Amino acid sequence: MLLSARRRGRTRNLSLSKKREANETLTIEIDDCIRRIVGKDSQYFITEGGCVVRKAARLNVPKWSHLNPGDREGIYSTVTDDFRFPEHITSKTAINRQLNTQYRNHRYRLHKYFQSFESRQEALRQVPEGVSEEDWKWLVSYFENDEFKKISERNKQNRAKNDCYTTVGTKSLARVVEEKKRKEDVELSEIDMFELSRKSKKSGGLVNDKAKETLDKMRELQATTSMTSKEICE
Description:
With 234 residues, the chain is mostly helical. It contains eleven helices and four strands. It has two domains: 158 residues, no CATH class; 61 residues, no CATH class. The protein has a two-stranded parallel ribbon. Strands 2-3 form a two-stranded antiparallel ribbon. Helix 2 packs antiparallel against helix 3 and helix 2 packs across helix 4. The termini are far apart.
């Protein structure tokens, strides 16, 4: 079985287990425009995806797409087993995108863990829980690779330049928008989505002056031109 060799105790989707015990049917929806998972049961699905990826996905490759296709398909089947969703290509794309994101997040956390050690030898002695010694050795070598270091530094610099960051946290914007639509029965334009994703949770206003300046320019273009919200945001 796919999960048996690498199962660990701490990573369990307890909330989904309770749903299983109650024989509840869980459904996810797919936002066809941006191919993201949404719907009231989406968090159960996302949590399950993270659990399965951490338990089952090998770490001895640079990225999700380099995993053995059979392993990727096995993870996909395990994650989707408890959920109903539209059977079309967009669904598979959205689900694989979500699993890819969770695989990257897992590796990002492992890289941060690796950086906490002063030497390679010390890192190799402290194999993270749930990671095989073989995979950890591969990751340590990969993290020390010059090409990886260049990419990591470039990404760090790009994040530092982003002064108009979102405030939606770990949720995707698609989920935040879908929840607002369902709760308030409203339709949101791309400009509305930009504003929603840059609001400060403390003040309720925009997160900084750059976000306000950008939104003001968008609203001005919307009022003075025939451009659509999508065209303005692009």
